[in-house]
Amino acid sequence: MISCCFYSSFVFLMNSGLAGIHKYYTYSFLFALLFVTSLIVHSNVNIYTIALDKISIFAIVCYGGYLFMKKCIYCNDCFYRLTNIVLIPCTFLLTIYLYYYGFLHNEYCYHPDEPIANLYHSFLHLISFVGHALIITM
Q1: The total number of structural domains that make up the chain
Q2: What is the C-alpha separation between 27 and 40, in angstroms, rounded?
Q3: DSSP 111
Q4: Is the pLDDT reported for residue 70 higher than 80?
Q5: Judging by beta carbons within 10 Å of its beta carbon (0-12, 13-18, 19+), is residue 61 exposed, middle or buried?
Q6: Among candidates 39, 15, 9, 44, which has minimal Cα distance to 29?
Q7: Cβ(16)–Cβ(35) below 8 Å
């Protein structure tokens, strides 16, 4: 049975399209790749698909962090920059919290009840979408 995480992975296609519209072609490609690996891992979970997905996630985090820092340096609108400097790291920290704290304490994305864990993981997809959309549009 396919979980809601499979369907929530489609938000990465929106990130890919948004990045493409803003001419961040590398970011767009990385999100398309993440979309594919996310669909694969959420339809066929094993150590190999998980590893592929983690590589895609790592690439997105690194490139997103690079783009965020670059944009923070060159942004002239102080209020807009301050808003993004607060919001974007909050989305990042929230995903870390839901995933790693949840892992350590069997909560959120690692809740013992699989449907609840999947809902949190889908929420994690949505938070990631928002954070990266903010990076793209800042």
Answers
A1: 1
A2: 20
A3: -
A4: yes
A5: middle
A6: 15
A7: yes
Domain coverage including residue 131: 4-137
Q: Is this model's pTM higher than 0.70 or not?
A: yes
Amino acid type, 103: F
Q: 104: helix, coil or strand?
A: helix
Rounded to whole angstroms, the Cα distance separating 125 from 133 reads 12
CA distance 123 to 9: 10
pLDDT at 83 over 80: no
Q: How far is CA 91 from CA 53, 84, 125, in A?
A: 19, 10, 11
Neighbour tally for 53: CB within 10 Å: 21
Contact call for residues 57 and 131 (beta carbons, < 8 A):
no
Report the share of the chain in percent with pLDDT over 90: 84
Q: pLDDT band at residue 75, thresholds of 50, 70 and 90?
A: confident
Does residue 131 contact residue 92 with C-beta atoms inside 8 Å? Answer: yes
Give residue 78's pLDDT band: very low, low, confident or very high (50, 70, 90): low
